Amino acid sequence: MGKIMVQGCSSSAGKSVLAMALARIFSDMGYRVAPFKSQNMSRIFHRLENGLIMSNAQVIQAFAARVSPDVRMNPVLLIPKTENGSDVIVEGKLVKSMKAKDYFEYKKDLKLKIQDIYNDLEDEFDIVVLEGAGSPAEINLREGDIVNMGMAEMADSDVILVVDIDRGGAFASLYGTVMILPEEERKRFKGLVINKFRGDVDLLKPGLKMIEDLTGVPVLGVIPFSHLEVPDEDSLIDYEKDANKGDKDFIKLNSEIDRFARLVRDNLDIEKVAEIAGVEYVKLT
């Protein structure tokens, strides 16, 4: 059974779209793929035909994987309602509205449920592409974590770490994220990905070598900045998109997923990604 987890140095680093691209790439290889994000916080959600709701990001990832969206792909959804409170959705249904502190206690009871749901998906699919949330370096949230390294442990999954270089400070973010974690968690990092790069990649190469030496984690590639017309997961956006307006145009969405998946294939070591995921690499033309 294959599995790979995408974590990020920050929100809006590119986790969701990289997971989306990997879902399409592995689907193109002939694998049956399930996206999975144990806990998502977003005001943007999708109501399935059965009335259950889940994060829009995992619906798009399922579309990329060419499988039907399933609330098990996003067992916990937090819909912010106030500065310090959210509606808590579990398996597509509203449990109740909770303050952040109350949810922090409540989520301890969710771990076994999430583990069981993940195990079911792992049994049903050839590969699961997991996505973390925010950053694993939020050490104040490590206790009881169910979405970053806590989820990686539950799934026993290796991790690739993506950073948004367009914001600046990418190397410090990569180094800090890797090195702030305890050694047993650092060992799960098997690859680094630089996202949203503008310019001459040759000028970046000395830094790539240095960050590999400093962290002991190989750089899998550098993804160029691209104006991607895929609906955003939340309000942290880099530019205005037509895809955020009105109903989804699935023909255009499919075309954009293919375009971005090819961009990822052309700029990442996908053979190494497949190795990290534990599946056989299938060369695509």
Protein described:
By secondary structure, the chain is α/β, with parallel strands linked by helices. The protein has one domain: P-loop containing nucleotide triphosphate hydrolases (Rossmann fold). The protein is 36% helix and 23% strand. The strands form 3 sheets. The chain has a 6-stranded parallel sheet with strand order 2-9-1-10-11-12, with helices on both faces. A 4-stranded mixed sheet has the order 3-6-7-8. Helix 1 runs parallel beside helix 2, helix 1 packs across helix 9 and helix 6 runs parallel beside helix 8. It is globular and about 50 Å long. The two termini are 25 Å apart. 44% of the residues are buried.
Write a short abstract of this structure.
This protein is of the alpha/beta class. The chain has helices spanning 15-28, 56-65, 100-106, 111-124, 149-155, 170-179, 183-186, 205-215, 250-267, 270-277, and strands at 2-8, 33-36, 39-41, 45-47, 53-55, 76-82, 85-90, 93-99, 127-131, 159-164, 189-197, 219-224.
